[in-house]
Amino acid sequence: MGDKGVCPVCKKDGVHTCSACKAVAYCSKEHQKDHWKNHKLQCRPFDVKSSKNLGRYIVSNRDLSRDAIIMSESPLVFGPKMAGAGPQCLGCYQPVDPGDPKLLLCPRCKWPVCSNVCFGVIHKEHHLPECLVLCNNTEVAEAGNMMYEAIFPLRCLLLQKKNPRKWQQLLSLESHVDERKKDKDINHDVEKIASYICDNFLERLDKGSLPDMSREIIHFICGVIEVNSLEITTGRGEVHALYPSASLMEHNCMPNTKHCFQLDDFKINVFAATPIKKGENLSTMYTHILWGTQARRDHLKATKYFTCQCQRCSDPTELGTHLSSLKCIGVDPSDV
Ligand SMILES: [Zn+2]
Ligand SMILES: [Zn+2]
Ligand SMILES: [Zn+2]
Ligand SMILES: [Zn+2]
Ligand SMILES: [Zn+2]
Fold first, then answer.
1. 30/82 same-domain check
2. Which terminus in the chain has less CB density within 10 A, N or C?
3. Where is the SET domain (predicted)?
4. How far, in Å, from the CA of 36 to the mean position of ligand 2?
């Protein structure tokens, strides 16, 4: 009998050990493949935990060496950034010029696109779900209106119908909606987006075509996007995306993970940036690593609603790097 026991599919001796977790063995590669659907949750090297302070967070469940793959997952939803999004192709997020006489339009919804063969415009997972809703929109693309800021929240709302499982996962993400509602400026901005979505898109949908079309759910979604979305720079434009597990990684100014994105489907691959011990919280960086402590903390407080207490933030020298220290250039001789 294999030392990891019997194949969970057929109970014969297990000889092919899962190379990721080494906790289970199969009689054959075929049965390993067949069993992956069940095994993948146990195989992943992290557990999701929750606490009052941190909300939900992620902890490694085994020792990980540097560069070990931690997760590879598809986004729940992705779209143009919310604040200040300008005219862009809804397939690839490349900026477009609405005044360009050669501007191409999506044949169905008449929103600008970069080309008629843009991958994201044709692909059924990318632009198509909202394309059917945008057909009802009569506004013309121009800089400064709300059209593009409303797209990401609209895509989130459409998940209710398009993919109820992903919708449930989105509902489980943190939104800080109560704190956000108390902030006059934020509340005003979200109200503008909510009004735009309701008047231009939802009003024209058949009643009941989405289970929840309330202003409350739009406030919640805008909070989820602001708190959890990760920014992807594609070389053509900028996309923001929400992930079921990667969005749960906590912030640390010395993160123990690093990640990269696949640019065709925005799948995220997360790796260990340092050796990680079993039981360590997995962290990423929500702000800019080369900013000084004051700037990082101000940014985190304003966008993510917490004051970072990490080792780097607690050390005035920022772990000996003196990234925010002022350099004393001595006494001006003319003052002596
Ligand atoms: Zn078997
Ligand atoms: Zn495994
Ligand atoms: Zn495009
Ligand atoms: Zn379209
Ligand atoms: Zn910090």
1. no
2. C
3. 39-287
4. 8
Residues within 5 A (CB) of ion ligand 2: 18, 20-21, 43
Maximum mean pLDDT: which of 57-66, 100-109, 305-314:
57-66
Ligand closest to the CA atom of residue 90: 3
What ipTM was reported for this prediction?
Answer: 0.81
Distance (Å) from CA 133 to ligand 4 centroid:
9
Which residues, by Cβ under 5 Å, contact ligand 5, an ion? 253, 308, 310, 313
Q: Containing domain of residue 17, as a range?
A: 1-43
What is the distance in A from the centroid of ligand 2 to the CA of 232? 29
pLDDT by residue (tens digit) across 287-298?
888 899 999 999
Tokens of 49: 């935990």
Asked if residue 184 belongs to a domain, the reply is yes
Q: Looking at the structure, do residues 102 and 230 belong to the same domain, yes or no?
A: yes
CA atoms within 13 A on the CB side of 326: 4
Do 120 and 11 lie in a common domain?
no
Gap between the Cα atoms of 28 and 170, Å rounded: 37
Question: DSSP code of 72?
Answer: E
How do 46-51 and 104-105 pair as beta strands? unpaired
Structurally, the chain folds into a number of domains equal to 2
The residue among 226, 242, 258 that closes a domain is: 242
Ligand nearest the Cα of residue 41 is 2
Question: Of 136, 72, 86, which Cα lies nearest the Cα of 108?
Answer: 136
